[in-house]
Amino acid sequence: MNDATPFGCQSAPVLRERGQHEVFCGLTGIVWLHRKMQDAFFLVVGSRTCAHLLQSAAGVMIFAEPRFGTAILEEGDLAGLKDANDELDREVARLLTRRPDIRQLFLVGSCPSEVIKLDLARAAERLTQVHAPHVRVLNYSGSGIETTFTQGEDACLAAMVPGLPSTDAANLLLVGALPDVVEDQARTLLAGLGIDHVQVLPGRRADQDPAVGPNTRYALLQPFLGDTAAALDGRGATRIAAPFPFGEEGTTAWLRAVAEAFGIDEATFARVTDAPRARARRAVAAAAETLAGKRITFLPDSQLELPLARFLSRECGMEPVEIGTPYLHAGLMGPELALLPQGARLSEGQDVDRQLDRVRADRPDLTVCGMGLANPLESEGLTTKWAIELVFTPVHFYEQAGDLAALFARPLRRKRILTDPAPLLLAENTPGVRGLAPASARE
């Protein structure tokens, strides 16, 4: 990072795009939510296309029995020739009879169910009355008509908030689905600070759902949870404003904001964080050698773009050319905007053709985009990174900081190897290594 670089984009102009967009729909969130919530089932009310999307995205083996499925809307349902509610009731009864381990059932709306205006909220209320107290039935929309794929998690968690138990006790609520090992790391850090009353939304099981009340403070783990934050505010909880825990600096700022909210002294904070901070800095430095001075553009995809741009610019020395995001939530992103380098172009929403024109004009060293745009850009000589990989890979907190930086360094190293033939020469005079590139090329 160049210490002379001026930072702060709170008042920077935002280019608002409204046009054709290319992202996965909110159904994709089921892929990580069903792994996190161990006694939940996600029943998509949609078409065979919805089913194929989930099967492909999740990579489910044929002999596995995942905790998601699709109630297929056939031609008769779409034409109004059948009572879709009666069919849905039968499918749910059949599912719960076969899977008695289910404690939470999510009816997930899709484009087809919304087009025919199937009222899944009322269906969830009706089915809860039938199957309570053994099963709680909720609903949310995963339709991709107006949303991006990470908003599926936001809609799911927001649907859970009204039913969370109430409490007057002081507690900390971590909001967002993380891999269990990363969640455990966060809990360990917070316990070291002396913050013991920690709960997580979503809980791993229905009986671990957190309690919420006027003395609840919550910290977001994911930057795309605007609706969930609004629902928690409505329950009287107070949000702890902070950058998101990506990289050493972001994790430290997130933890410090939580520590200050609970009155933790600086000496305790330093004792708990100094060692993991040093490990994170060393891990990031290894990838920063490849990233420093490189220019990067983010096309709007996951809503992770602003925190990632902050991490890459401040800790890895990259220069953000354009930071596009599907939706720029000024309230949640305030701490991130304050840390972004001045001069970076900010855009909200998507107009694919116009944004691709800017990428071709800017010629950044790395473009972060959706899978559907990556191959065409690569064919034009541009280096790309799939945005969706940043959602499926553990990237939060100190121990993952080096892995996060390496995700961006890898495509640049690959391009260097492919375009520079020298590292690929065989070590012909070295016995036993014919056919192998030297170590400098095997990165």
UniProtKB/TrEMBL annotation:
It comes from the Bacteria. Residues 25-396 form the Nitrogenase/oxidoreductase component domain. HAMAP family: ChlN_BchN. GO terms for biological process: light-independent bacteriochlorophyll biosynthetic process; photosynthesis, dark reaction. Pathway: Porphyrin-containing compound metabolism; bacteriochlorophyll biosynthesis (light-independent). InterPro entries: LIPOR_BchN/ChlN (IPR050293), Nase/OxRdtase_comp1 (IPR000510), Protochl_reductN (IPR005970). Belongs to the BchN/ChlN family. One of its GO terms (molecular function) is oxidoreductase activity, acting on iron-sulfur proteins as donors. Keywords: 4Fe-4S, ATP-binding, Bacteriochlorophyll biosynthesis, Chlorophyll biosynthesis, Iron, Iron-sulfur, Metal-binding, Nucleotide-binding, Oxidoreductase, Photosynthesis. Binds 1 [4Fe-4S] cluster per heterodimer. The cluster is bound at the heterodimer interface by residues from both subunits. It catalyses: chlorophyllide a + oxidized 2[4Fe-4S]-[ferredoxin] + 2 ADP + 2 phosphate = protochlorophyllide a + reduced 2[4Fe-4S]-[ferredoxin] + 2 ATP + 2 H2O. PANTHER family: LIGHT-INDEPENDENT PROTOCHLOROPHYLLIDE REDUCTASE SUBUNIT N. Protochlorophyllide reductase is composed of three subunits; BchL, BchN and BchB. Forms a heterotetramer of two BchB and two BchN subunits. The keyword ATP-binding applies. It comes from Jannaschia seohaensis. This is Light-independent protochlorophyllide reductase subunit N.
